[in-house]
Amino acid sequence: MKSKSGLTRLHNCYILRNSKIIKEDLWIRDDRIEDPEKVFYEEQLQADITVDCGGLLIAPGFIDIQINGGWGVDFSFDSDNVEEGIRKVSKELLTHGVTSFCPTMVTSDVEKYRKILPLIKQTDGGPHGATVLGVHLEGPFINLAKKGAHMEEYIRIPEKGIQTLTEVYGSLDNVVIVTIAPELPGATQAIRELTNLGIKVALGHSTASLAQGEEAVECGANLITHLFNAMLPFHHRDPGLVGLLASSTKRQVFYGIISDGIHTHPAALRIASRTNPDGLVLVSDAVAAQGLADGNYRIGPQLVTVEGVHAYVTGTKTLCGSTSALDTCVAKLKQSLDCSMEYALEAASLHPAKALSIDHRKGKLNYGYDADFVIINPDTLKIKSTWIAGECVYKCDQF
Amino acid sequence: MYRRLIEFYKEGRISFKYVTTFNMDEYVGLPRDHPESYHYYMWNEFFKHVDIDPANAHVLDGNATDLVAECTRFEELIKQAGGVHLFIGGIGPDGHIAFNEPGSSLVSRTRVKTLAYDTLEANKRFFGNDISKVPRQALTVGVGTVMDAKEVMILITGVHKSLALAKAVEEGVNHMWTVSAFQQHPQTLFVCDEDATLELRVKTVKYFKALSDEHQKMIEDVPVEEQRVIH
């Protein structure tokens, strides 16, 4: 089951297209999804290769916009072998159906940003690993009161807007998302400036009121970082950032959800999804411990203890990211929401693509889109193979 | 019919590898991927399911810049392919064959045809019930083009087509019911269901039923060329 270039027809399969699972062949050529009707009538060509998918389901490849590391690699801490770490994680992600991701750096000191950030380049995916879409910077411009697992001494205020940001981060060239607390002095200005640069702004680690949240959205923010976590709990007189799900602002707000079964109660998941179904973006928020056995690990400069599926700041019961990859999150989401398979899959593909404004080439199986997809068992969601740019980059041996 | 052909193909009983097809008509100016376009229909209902060579599947291009040239090209392609061996078609309730609407010349060739108001009215249900969205022209093979086929098979089902069937077989050749032209074709078979016979005389139906079994026996396993002289 290998192919690159040539006209390939994947048949005997179901595909997720236009939010529906339909019995249809998927045609690909080079790195794109092809319109077979056009090829038939205009080019009068038949498929060079035909792949029998054995009745399995083809879905768009998963896109993880918040992942701190995994398999022992911590994107925020390992500054001596950044590229090697990215390579390792991006390769391992293929086994979980993730075809694109945003390596995420948590609050760190200036030196780390200067060392690490320039080395995480946007990279096309392939057999070497998933596509690196760009870095997600979570902090340090967050609220001390909602620091979660972030290191207090590095947390800052974006006093002079983007000027402060660049003083801390250095170049923003490799950055696609910045998580910021909108209530901080200078944050509104920073949000506006980041948006102008085409960088997405996520709101999080914040005590913002709904009004502050809405102002941030008006300024261009379109994401909420791990909804419910590290923000004010929902209050009926001031619903805070959670209220953005049902706010009267016209723009679609997307919200990251860690559906590992621990970070968010299933009922809370249902509340979010029913209030704002199109905005739900599954994120793994996975830490270095993902893919590793129980024990002590690092997240940023902190120690983390993994016990089963839980990851805590060592010596406390503060959760600091999950140890579940995105494929597990899709299964958990489906279970928690009792939603359709289509919805669960799109929450990990189309929705993040929309949040990043790349839904014109990723997140769907439409004609002309990047041929990034997964072939999965529709009952168990187990991944049979992962394809990037028309090439089979991972195949499960024990399927 | 296409569903059955696909079944046969999937069972490995037939192949379309060496089959050449010509579709008889297409709307003018309708995008190829419009669900009512015959390109779309043929791709989704037939071509994509079988092993036909795309170079051998011909559908009139209703979006060609020069429609006249397109019609000439089509006739030429048919000639190059050695003519049509088997024409299979249905009819409209008004007895039209392809888009040869009532009043069409019975010696017509492939051409651009204006569509009758009745046809627009009947088809508007496919275009959001808006008659202004229904294409007013179509490309179609002519009655003469079909008459040149070695063998013709017409499928007629349902009460709404019963009058057309009666006009096709019980009355004279008439350009107002273009399907009646096949009375002068040497090898035409009408396949119909009981409903479609409702407007026929009892005598006509009984006549054809009575000789059907014997006729079937006669033509079984006989090549088309020979069938022409066994009626």
TrEMBL record, chain A:
Q: Which residues are in the Amidohydrolase-related domain?
A: 58-391
Q: Keyword annotations for this protein?
A: Carbohydrate metabolism, Hydrolase, Metal-binding
| InterPro entries membership | Amidohydro-rel (IPR006680), GlcNAc_6-P_deAcase (IPR003764), Metal-dep_hydrolase_composite (IPR011059), Metal_Hydrolase (IPR032466)
Required co-factor? a divalent metal cation
The reply to whether Hydrolase figures as a keyword in the UniProt entry is yes
Q: Where does substrate bind?
A: 149, 229-230, 237, 263, 319-321
What CDD domains does the database record attribute to this sequence? NagA
GO annotations under biological process? N-acetylglucosamine catabolic process; N-acetylneuraminate catabolic process; negative regulation of UDP-N-acetylglucosamine biosynthetic process
Q: Which GO terms describe its molecular function?
A: metal ion binding; N-acetylglucosamine-6-phosphate deacetylase activity
User: What domain of life does the native source organism fall in?
Assistant: Eukaryota
Positions that bind Zn(2+)? 138, 205, 226
Bound cofactor: record note: Binds 1 divalent metal cation per subunit.
The family line of this record is:
Belongs to the metallo-dependent hydrolases superfamily. NagA family.
Listed name of the protein: N-acetylglucosamine-6-phosphate deacetylase
Q: Which source organism?
A: Arctia plantaginis
From TrEMBL, chain B:
Q: Which reaction does it catalyse?
A: alpha-D-glucosamine 6-phosphate + H2O = beta-D-fructose 6-phosphate + NH4(+)
Q: GO biological process: any one?
A: N-acetylneuraminate catabolic process
Q: Which GO terms describe its cellular component?
A: cytoplasm
Pathway listed for it is:
Nucleotide-sugar biosynthesis; UDP-N-acetyl-alpha-D-glucosamine biosynthesis; alpha-D-glucosamine 6-phosphate from D-fructose 6-phosphate: step 1/1
Q: Where in the cell is it found?
A: Cytoplasm
- InterPro entries cross-referenced by the UniProt entry: Glc/Gal-6P_isomerase (IPR006148), Glucosamine6P_isomerase (IPR004547), Glucosamine6P_isomerase_CS (IPR018321), NagB/RpiA_transferase-like (IPR037171)
Tell me which Pfam families the record gives.
Glucosamine_iso
Name the Enzyme Commission number(s) assigned to this protein: 3.5.99.6
Question: Which of the seven top EC classes does this enzyme belong to?
Answer: hydrolase
Q: Which UniProt keywords apply?
A: Carbohydrate metabolism, Cytoplasm, Hydrolase
Task: Give the principal location in a single coarse category.
Answer: cytoplasm
Q: Name one GO molecular function term.
A: identical protein binding
Q: What sequence ranges are listed for the domain Glucosamine/galactosamine-6-phosphate isomerase?
A: 2-185
Q: Which PANTHER family match?
A: GLUCOSAMINE-6-PHOSPHATE ISOMERASE
**What family is this protein classified in?**
Belongs to the glucosamine/galactosamine-6-phosphate isomerase family.
What does this protein's UniProt record list under function?
Answer: Catalyzes the reversible conversion of alpha-D-glucosamine 6-phosphate (GlcN-6P) into beta-D-fructose 6-phosphate (Fru-6P) and ammonium ion, a regulatory reaction step in de novo uridine diphosphate-N-acetyl-alpha-D-glucosamine (UDP-GlcNAc) biosynthesis via hexosamine pathway.
Q: How does it assemble?
A: Homohexamer.
Q: What is this protein called?
A: Glucosamine-6-phosphate isomerase
Species in which this protein is naturally found: Arctia plantaginis (Wood tiger moth)
Identify the taxonomic lineage of the organism of origin: Eukaryota, Metazoa, Ecdysozoa, Arthropoda, Hexapoda
